[in-house]
Amino acid sequence: MKKEFVVKSIDAAPDGAPYVIVSLSSIKDLKAGTQSPPSPFGNPKVMGFSNMGDMMKDLNKMMSGMGGMGMQSGVTQLKLEMHEYKDMGLSVGDKVFLELSKAETLGV
Predict the structure, then answer these.
(1) Does residue 19 or residue 59 have the better pLDDT?
(2) Full-model pTM
(3) Which domain holds residue 93?
(4) Any idea what the CATH number is for the domain that residue 64 is in?
(5) Residue among 10, 2, 5, 1 at smallest CA distance from 80
(6) Which pLDDT score is estimated for 10?
(7) How confident is the model at residue 92 (pLDDT cuts 50, 70, 90)?
(8) How many domains does the chain divide into?
C-alpha cells in the first residue's frame, strides 16, 4: 500500500532526544478542504463560569476538549532519527509517499 502525504509540521522531540516528529496530512484531506488552520490547542472553546465550583466541576470537560494537548485528528506522525531527517532533507510543504508492506515469511 502506498499513500501520498504533505509534510504539515516538523517538531523537535519533546524530551530533547536526538529525533524529530514529522506530522503528515493526507493529500486527499487537503484537496477536500477538510483541514483547518492548525491551532496548538485544537478547537478553541470559551467556557464561562459563574463560580469556582462550576469551574472545578467542568475542568475535565475543558481539558478533554483540547484534543490531547495539541494532537490533531487526521494527522499521521513519524518519529525520525536526526541522521534520517537530515539525509531526507524534509521541509514543511514537501510531498512525500509512505509505503507499507507486510513481510512475507516462508514456512510456519
Answers:
(1) 19
(2) 0.57
(3) 2-99
(4) 2.40.30
(5) 10
(6) 93
(7) very high
(8) 1
**Residue 12, domain member (yes or no):** yes
Closest of 29, 24, 19 to residue 81, by C-alpha? 19
3-class DSSP assignment, residue 78: strand
Which range has the worst mean pLDDT, 27-41, 57-71, 73-87, 92-106?
57-71
DSSP letter assigned to residue 72: P
Residue bearing cell 503528515: 24
DSSP assignment of 1-59 equals: -EEEEEEEEEEE-TT--SEEEEEEEEHHHHHHT-PPPP-TTSS------SSHHHHHHTH
Residues 6 or more apart whose CB falls under 8 angstroms from that of 93 comprise 6, 7
- Entry field: residues in the chain: 108
Q: What is the pLDDT of residue 103?
A: 86
Sorting pLDDT into bands at 50, 70 and 90, what band is 79?
Answer: very high
